[in-house]
């Protein structure tokens, strides 16, 4: 059976079983979201050969980040073969620190450029700002994806034209997520990734995505594996 590539997940909860892949070859991107979990992500990757680690400051945690987080993140990235993320913009909450989130995203994009690392981006209700930031900072050449993509087909086209990969999550399984399914249908095959976001079995996501796109599950698994290797090639060398 084809190998599986999970483009975005998180540390398993204490006592939780390992993600089910039925003995298949697989790769799993595991993202840190705040300084407190960066060491745990690195330790998890050190004990799991299939894990590709990412270290970042998620927009939810920007306001409470300790002073000097940028330098500490850079030091860890320079000493470990990890990517940058999960970082990004989330303007869904009224109290969101929009300026702080944008500043933190720019810092992390610049680190991804300087260290030639892939970056994982979280975006909710901030698509215009994201496009503006990416146009100004440029997409890191080592690879970039927007995880759990929920934007419009127009936004998808704009991001793909910049070279950004779009990763689709278990939201595809929800009947009310018609917009996400439409974006998946229109996504370029060369920019398509699938993920669990740590909450659903990857094979279920693959099956749903294959049905939506009208291709075989095997073909989609092979495509996701190839694209994952492209997006995260700097971590797989």
Q: What does this protein structure show overall?
A:
The chain is an alpha/beta fold and 237 residues long. The protein folds into two domains: 27-138, Metal-dependent hydrolases (TIM Barrel); 143-237, TIM Barrel, CATH 3.20.20.140. The protein is 42% helix and 17% strand. The radius of gyration is 17 Å and the shape is globular.
Question: What's the layout of helices and strands?
Answer:
Layout: E1 4-9, E2 26-31, H1 38-47, E3 51-55, H2 69-79, E4 83-90, H3 98-115, E5 119-124, H4 127-137, E6 144-146, H5 153-161, E7 165-168, H6 178-186, E8 192-194, H7 202-213, H8 217-231, H9 233-236
Helix pairs in contact: 2-3, 3-4, 7-8
Physical arrangement of strands within the biggest beta sheet: 1-2-3-4-5-6-7-8
* Biggest sheet features: 8 strands, parallel
Number of helices: 9
Straight-line N-to-C gap: 23 Å
- The SS-based structural class is alpha/beta
Count of separate structural domains: 2
* Helix fraction by DSSP (H/I, runs of at least 4): 40-55%
Q: What's the CATH class of the largest domain, please?
A: Alpha Beta
- CA-atom Rg in angstroms: 17 Å
Helices and strands, in order, run as EEHEHEHEHEHEHEHHH
Say what oligomer this is.
single chain
- What CATH architecture label of the largest domain applies? Alpha-Beta Barrel
Query: CATH superfamily name of the largest domain?
Result: Metal-dependent hydrolases
Q: Can you tell me the residue ranges where pLDDT is under 50 for at least 5 consecutive residues? A: none
* Topology, number of strands: 8
Quote the beta fraction. Answer: 15-25%
Write down the overall geometry.
Answer: globular
**CATH fold field value of the largest domain:** TIM Barrel
Mean pLDDT: 94
């Amino acid at each position: 059976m084809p190998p599986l590539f999970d483009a975005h997940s998180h540390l398993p909860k204490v006592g939780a079983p390992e993600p089910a892949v039925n003995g298949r070859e697989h790769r799993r991107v595991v993202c840190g979201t705040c300084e407190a979990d960066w060491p745990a992500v690195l330790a998890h990757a050190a004990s799991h050969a299939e894990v590709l680690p990412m270290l970042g400051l998620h927009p939810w945690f920007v306001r409470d980040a300790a002073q000097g987080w940028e330098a500490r993140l850079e030091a860890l990235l320079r000493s470990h073969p990890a990517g940058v993320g999960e970082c990004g913009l989330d303007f869904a909450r009224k109290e969101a620190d929009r300026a702080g989130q944008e500043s933190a995203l720019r810092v992390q994009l610049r680190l991804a450029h300087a260290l030639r690392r892939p970056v994982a981006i979280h975006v909710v209700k901030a698509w215009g700002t994201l496009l503006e930031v990416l146009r100004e900072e440029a997409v890191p050449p080592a690879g970039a994806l927007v995880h759990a993509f929920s934007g419009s087909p127009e936004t998808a086209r704009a991001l793909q034209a910049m070279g950004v990969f779009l990763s689709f999550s278990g939201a595809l399984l929800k009947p009310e997520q018609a917009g996400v399914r439409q974006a998946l249908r229109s996504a370029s095959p060369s920019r398509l990734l699938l993920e669990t976001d740590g909450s659903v079995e990857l094979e279920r996501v693959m099956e749903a995505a294959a049905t939506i796109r009208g291709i075989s599950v095997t073909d989609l698994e092979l495509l996701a594996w190839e694209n994952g290797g492209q997006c995260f090639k700097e971590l797989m060398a």
